[in-house]
Design goal:
disordered C terminus; two-stranded antiparallel ribbon; 6 strands; mainly alpha; about 425 residues; 18 helices
């Protein structure tokens, strides 16, 4: 198509995922039954795409390592249902949801996509998200009032009903979720050398007070500055803009809350205790067999309740357990549920794309790996958004050779 940058095999039509992907982080917060609205949106998109392609399904080998982890997770979860101690219905719903999301991501990820369209749509989404953040920022720091996340469904409470928060979150349940929605946009902006857009949305991440978002933004900017194929004058501009952002972050009053939160994290408080300290405490108590293959628990609070004698009374896990807010980061959650063996399968697809020399989204993949130590993205909508985004850029590398490595299934014909 004229005016669009096409990545992959241009002979095949796109699914339209470029219009939906930027809004999946918001839609994933709304749930009806055991399905999120993002899942329902993917079902609609996949159905339309299938009929446009005469019910022909193409399964590309780029997803084989993700599928390998999903198969391992399903097998381990089935064993947990048989021999575990947690309610089975919740586990059944979870398995159904993540297997469905995996299938949908594969279905709606075409053999090529229009990167410019994806970028433009994500910019629109970014401006909408940032407008919501500025509204919250004004309410908190100028009006002195508490706020609730902005809901796009009237009457639907993203957080517990009546819960007020003192940090800007825009349309999201927490600042970290806002930052997660903008990190791909910052990556796309830097990839296109659009430093103005990258700088603007980096400022938005700083305003959100998300320490995780700040770290990931720094990683993306650092990788961009040291990228080999970026012209020297653009690198100089990037360094100058980075210095402006850093100076503003340390000196402007509007970033004071974010700055204080970062200081707290580096001092071992807040995020460190809740997301890293608790995770280490739980993993240290696992017996060797559970460390290798995972536990028979799906609920970490239940595990701590049954094994409280293994924890120090002053440990982070026990402190947060008493408050019923124990958080495991992705690495610890994978080990807790699937063991070190599961951790190997989980990181395998990320390792594969990072080691590829020409892979287009390598910087984003590295940022995701770092995020695994401070966030939870185990088989949840965030994980499948990442899987979708990274999968799109594998089509750029394979191009027309992709079809020699595809399983083709025709629902209404005998051949493809």
């Amino acid at each position: 198509m004229e005016g669009q940058k096409m990545l992959g095999d241009e002979s095949q039509s796109t699914s339209g995922i470029e219009y939906l992907a930027p809004f999946l982080p918001v839609l994933a917060q709304y749930k009806f039954g055991f399905l999120t609205v993002s899942t329902l949106a993917l079902i609609v998109l996949a159905t339309i795409f299938l009929f446009r392609n005469n019910l022909r399904v193409r399964i590309d080998k780029r997803y084989k390592y993700y599928i390998l982890f999903i198969l391992f997770a399903v097998s381990r979860d089935l064993l947990r249902m048989l021999f575990g101690v947690d309610p089975r219905q919740a586990q059944i719903n979870r398995v159904l949801e993540y297997t469905m999301n995996c299938a949908l991501v594969i279905l709606v990820t075409p053999t090529h996509f229009e990167e410019d369209r994806l970028y433009k749509t994500w910019r629109i989404a970014g401006f909408i998200y940032t407008a919501g953040l500025l509204y919250h920022f004004f309410c908190i720091y100028f009006l002195g009032s508490s706020i609730s996340p902005i809901s796009i469904i009237p009457g639907y409470a993203i957080r517990d009903s009546g819960t007020q928060i003192s940090r800007p979150t825009s349309f999201f349940a927490e600042p970290a979720s806002f930052a997660d929605a903008l990190i791909p946009l910052i990556f796309l902006s830097l990839r296109k050398n659009d430093l103005r857009t990258a700088g603007l949305f980096t400022f938005a991440v700083l305003l959100s007070t998300s320490s995780v978002g700040v770290v990931l933004a720094v990683v993306l900017w650092g990788l961009y500055i040291f990228k080999k194929n970026v012209k020297i004058y653009i690198k100089v501009l990037a360094v100058m803009l980075s210095c402006v952002i850093i100076f503003a972050f340390f000196n402007a009053r509007i970033f004071e809350s974010s700055f204080q939160k970062i200081l707290g994290v580096t001092g071992g408080g807040g995020t460190f205790h809740s997301r890293i300290g608790s995770s280490i405490d739980v993993i240290k108590t696992l017996k060797p067999s559970s460390l290798i293959f995972g536990t028979n628990y799906s609920d970490v609070n239940h595990y701590i309740s049954d094994h409280s004698d293994l924890f120090s009374s002053s440990s982070d896990a026990i402190i947060y357990w008493h408050a019923d807010t124990v958080f495991l980061n992705t690495v610890a959650r994978v080990v807790f549920q699937y063991g070190l063996l599961g951790l190997f399968f989980f990181f395998l697809p990320f390792y594969i794309v990072v080691r590829k020399r020409e892979y287009g989204a390598k910087a984003y993949a590295i940022a995701v790996i770092i995020a695994c130590f401070v966030q939870s993205m185990l088989l949840n909508p965030y994980y499948f958004s990442i899987m979708l985004f990274l999968g799109l850029y594998e089509s750029e590398e394979k191009g027309n050779e992709m079809f020699s490595e595809m399983l083709c299934i025709d629902i209404i014909k005998t051949n493809c």
